[in-house]
Sequence to fold (344 residues):
Amino acid sequence: MPPNNKLSESEIRPDDLMQKQRIAMLSDIGRLLSKRSDFVLITCPACDSGKYSKCYEKYGLDYVLCQNCETMYINPRPSHDVLEWFYRESENYAYWNKYIFPASEEARHKKIVIPRVEKVLDLCSKYRIASEAILEVGAGFGTFCREVAVRGAFNRVVAIEPTPDLANTCREKGIEVIESSIENVDFSNGDKFDVVVSFEVIEHLFSPKSFLAACWNVLKDDGIIIVTCPNAKGFDFITLGSFCNSADHEHLNYFNPVSLTLLLQRCGFEMLECLTPGRLDAELVRKKILAGEFDVSHQPFLQQILIDKWEQVGEAFQDFLSKSGLSSNMWLVARKKTIEGGKR
Ligand SMILES: [Zn+2]
Fold:
């Protein structure tokens, strides 16, 4: 990674704005908990096992660990209907839209969107994917789709975005938008895609399995899916436990490379590869230590890497985590597997 492309958390989540964001987030959590009587108990979102043990409680929610595949998940959890209501009126999302995204747009574009587009295009080239049609599920502000379109890498770029304001933003960027969740889109006209991508969406969903089944349906035979989400076996997740900021009320599912592979296989995909290109794990733990929120006085090795020798070894340590499948941000690439007749 060239030095000028180094990513720090404050570039994409400015410190002063994040303090105020916390107020919006706590208000959202209060709203979510007011619907607690509508929460439902589920089996493991990855392997469907009903055996789990409790990890911890946070924000009034129970985080449990599947004893079979080690997926951590919120259980009981808000139903699909409660989630729709929750996100439609989310103060946290409104705050991000109004303040954090605009303030960090340039850094995000340069350091997140462009590398993301380039990685997707590299994977498409590696797996010899036709450059006909790409679909992004949960397109948000449309920054990924716009960059793909500008590069002319696909003949057709389509965004699925259920939130009306965000869908409008995508349209304003000239992107073809389907304003719906993928599970509710009628693709009976035979509309199919060579690639489906979804960035940081699956961890929010009530039913990741229904989501992946819908993605399978819209892919052409041998098309690929690229899914990114937190890796609950990554460095900052395991090190910080319940102190990890990514363990929050919005993330219902915390997969790991093995468990998400299992789910993809159950949904008719064949795994191609798993990457963990995260670049912030070490810094996230370091910031918790410096803020006095996480104690490493009994972990002198972490004290050395993350504090005492940070300037000398911090970057190399993060590099090691990313390259070794140990970062908390993961990418899974899988191919649609077809059986006789083209149906599962
Ligand atoms: Zn499981």
The longest strand covers residues 219-230. The chain has a mean pLDDT of 92.
